[in-house]
Specification:
Rieske Iron-sulfur Protein, 8 helices, 26% helix
């Protein structure tokens, strides 16, 4: 009996109906997963942490991405650097995943020792002709934007990270995000393919039923609902939202806080991102259960609490920055069916737990939201593997960003010859 010929990833993506989801096969096959990791996590810029992961000289943070591993380190000059987590001798892993503090980076195998600037400092038994300068740690391309630490494993990283930096640096500047500390962090392994995790994040079609805590700070009209589906009261509420949003943005802009949406989501874009300053509901201060600040000591030198929510997406991360704290999340694909979701809550470095902020109030909205999303992604992943699954159409109003994300995914595959 002849074997069934599997469709290539390119053929599967091409086979989808316009405006509809991807075939279920792209979420489960190991060969497709390996292609995804190679293209979207090795050849593109990805977020792997925040500057507060390495607050002092000698602090390191190690992140595994597929078979690759990166060491993020703050050197003796307070500069953040990134290296391949591979000894230049016989390739041993230098450090395990997680955070630690070191004076030098010492290989546990044969004790080759590296300075924090990556230079090979000491070896034994290598002979008088050994040239240590040829065996420094291999650097990984690194870009810090606000507090976000982006790396790219490719020899030549996409140059359009410059647009993200140019756009986000002035938006993040008032919050002084590099001068923050981590108040809390969490990890969830979601039982779903990484693409479904990102699709879920790119829409709020599910928010009203799926995220009761998060929607306390969202005005429902801000999630892309169609006026065609509204009664007269709904249309009046939408008009009121549009006016509130316009008035708030005019007020913020007068004080120098940038508001306008920037979308680098489609076309020949390698570094996929979106940003906008959004109105927060009710008290308008923060994404908390009462929509008031969770930390009394505001970020940077801010004095104004009602600055809305400055959000940013990249293709493996999302964040929400408010006057009192920032919530920053990034993902790492683990297997075709599992994805690590890592979230960090940042506050002013001088804020004191129990005095300036309560961890539960600070985190409860997104702790609940992340858990809910994990459940939703899991049922989406399982259903997409059912033999009866036929991809359906995306909503033209509430899932437009999912369409753009999938189109971007397909375009990047083509750009890399898939």
């Amino acid at each position: 009996m002849s074997e069934v010929q599997l469709k290539t990833l390119g053929e599967l993506v091409e086979s989808r109906e316009p405006g509809c989801g991807l075939p279920g096969e792209v979420f489960i096959r190991p060969d497709i997963f390996e292609t995804d990791v190679d293209i979207f996590f090795y050849k593109h810029w990805i977020m792997v942490g925040v500057t507060a992961d390495v607050p002092e000289a000698g602090d390191i943070s190690v992140v595994d991405v597929g078979r690759a591993s990166v060491i993020i380190v703050r050197d003796d000059d307070e500069r953040i650097r990134a290296y391949r987590n591979v000894c230049r001798h016989r390739g041993a892993r230098l450090k395990e995943v997680g955070k630690s503090t070191v004076g030098m980076i010492v290989c546990p195998y044969h004790q080759w020792t590296y300075d924090l600037d990556g230079s090979l400092h000491h070896t034994k038994h290598m002979g008088k002709d050994f040239d240590a300068t040829c065996r420094n740690l291999r650097p990984v391309h690194l870009k810090v934007v606000g507090t976000h630490v982006f790396v790219c494993f490719a020899d030549e990283p996409p140059a359009d990270i410059a647009k993200l930096e140019e756009t986000m640096a002035p938006r993040f500047a008032p919050y002084d995000l590099q001068n923050t500390k981590i108040a809390f962090e969490s990890e969830i392994v979601e039982n779903g393919n990484w693409k479904l995790v990102m699709e879920n994040n790119r829409e709020c079609y599910h928010c009203e039923a799926g995220h009761p805590e998060l929607t306390l700070s969202f005005l429902p009209e801000s999630t892309g609902a169609s006026a065609d589906d509204m009664d007269e009261a709904g249309r009046q509420a939408l008009d009121a939202y549009n006016k509130l949003n316009a008035d708030s943005q005019e007020n913020w802009e007068r004080e120098g806080y940038i508001c306008s949406a920037v979308e680098e989501l489609s076309g020949d874009v390698a570094t996929h991102f979106r940003t906008q300053r959004l109105v927060i509901a009710t008290h308008g201060e923060s994404q908390t259960m009462d929509t008031k600040v969770a930390c009394k000591k505001l970020l940077g030198n801010l004095t104004r609490r009602d600055l809305g929510d400055t959000h940013m997406w990249s293709h493996n991360s999302w964040c929400h920055v408010m006057s009192d704290h920032a919530m920053i999340t990034y993902i790492v694909p683990l297997t075709p069916e599992t994805t690590l979701v890592r979230t960090k809550w940042l506050v002013h470095p001088d804020a004191v737990e129990g005095v300036d902020y309560d961890v539960q109030k600070l985190t409860e909205v997104w702790v609940a939201t992340n858990a809910q999303d994990a459940s939703l992604v899991a049922i989406n992943h399982r259903g997409a593997q059912d033999p009866g699954y036929i991809p359906g159409p995306y909503s033209p109003t509430t899932e437009t960003y999912v369409v753009q994300w999938v189109d971007w995914y397909a375009g990047r595959l083509k750009a890399h010859g898939i």
